[in-house]
Model the fold of this input.
Amino acid sequence: MLAADPYAANLGVVVDTVTEDQIVVSMEVTDRHLNFLGVSHGGAVFSLADCAFSLASNSAGRALAIDTHLVLTAASRHGDRLQATVRELSRGGTLGTYRAEVTRQDGRLVGLFTGTVHISGDS
Amino acid sequence: MLAADPYAANLGVVVDTVTEDQIVVSMEVTDRHLNFLGVSHGGAVFSLADCAFSLASNSAGRALAIDTHLVLTAASRHGDRLQATVRELSRGGTLGTYRAEVTRQDGRLVGLFTGTVHISGDS
Amino acid sequence: MLAADPYAANLGVVVDTVTEDQIVVSMEVTDRHLNFLGVSHGGAVFSLADCAFSLASNSAGRALAIDTHLVLTAASRHGDRLQATVRELSRGGTLGTYRAEVTRQDGRLVGLFTGTVHISGDS
Amino acid sequence: MLAADPYAANLGVVVDTVTEDQIVVSMEVTDRHLNFLGVSHGGAVFSLADCAFSLASNSAGRALAIDTHLVLTAASRHGDRLQATVRELSRGGTLGTYRAEVTRQDGRLVGLFTGTVHISGDS
Done:
């Protein structure tokens, strides 16, 4: 699905691994991800986590994101590689909740993401 | 500041108005903002609100985002124009909290954003 | 509805005003609301906002809270009176989103709340 | 610390286990935790998680909660026993972030909590 996602392509987000338990996506921080302070834009970190969330939540039927929360715990800079690992924590007939962690290549936690989807149909 | 923000430039975010009470930024939804379902990526809506939040929170000193929350209330599509209006609700010596609303050109509310910054220095 | 809410009664939450546009509830901070630091427990501030959210979201049909976010912007202490004012920002057939602000008697903003409900039936 | 916390006492929150990696607190759902629909009030579930968060974040110095997020994933009723397990995910000199999961006695996930504190001094 990510291959058909223009937003993910524009940001350079790629899929690393997909297993039953988790999905991992990553992105290298380049100039286009930076804000005016020279560090990764909050929106870039959010978008990486959101790509993982979107993949995980749509794998078993069409799902629309309704709520997202992101705590930013460390900065990242040009040349850093960020990885988002997402897991499904709850999924019923109409709602599903996922958590993702974004880490830097040195293992430092960069972001903590939680997202909820409304499931609107079968895949 | 937005002019020196490569991330905002990549997404086509522009500043509409800046007053003492609020800041308004906007972006036209184009192909690069879409997800694999053909609607605006949650990350794109978040990023627009985050640009407004960043401008508002850095106007009186250097501020780092530490927490962000976004509720998505309606979809947007290619050709829509999204506008984010941000207001400062609380600012002390070390923390500041801001709320932004993202609307479509037809007035429909698309997203509700809340963000908190840690203030790390003077401008 | 609040009169039939044992949780609200236990915390001393009362309804101040109900109009079409907003609902206001309040509570006096007493010993039972304090944490081990001697200030109002985050759970007490949350609960006041949640009571307002619950009243507003159930006024037009049965609604279950699915997501809540609270930023705490100032402390409150024994003898303070806290007031939560809630407004509906979005409501469709299955989802509704509300924002509440909690203030102290001196006008200081104590908490910023956002909540989303899943609407499961008519009233 | 929980023994000196009037709010926790009022809600019947007790500490189950404290280890270096996690803290577990629990509470039996009784009448005083119910809302007008007869299920546990969102504020009660939040408060349980918040007690765990408070214990964990204050164990190494005085910490003030600044941001909290709770997703509610299942209901609980009179007689249920709810347990909140909290872990520290990030802690620097001025900020710390914690995640807690609230579960029912049958293992069902009831709530997903994320909280951030501002660290204001040593213990």
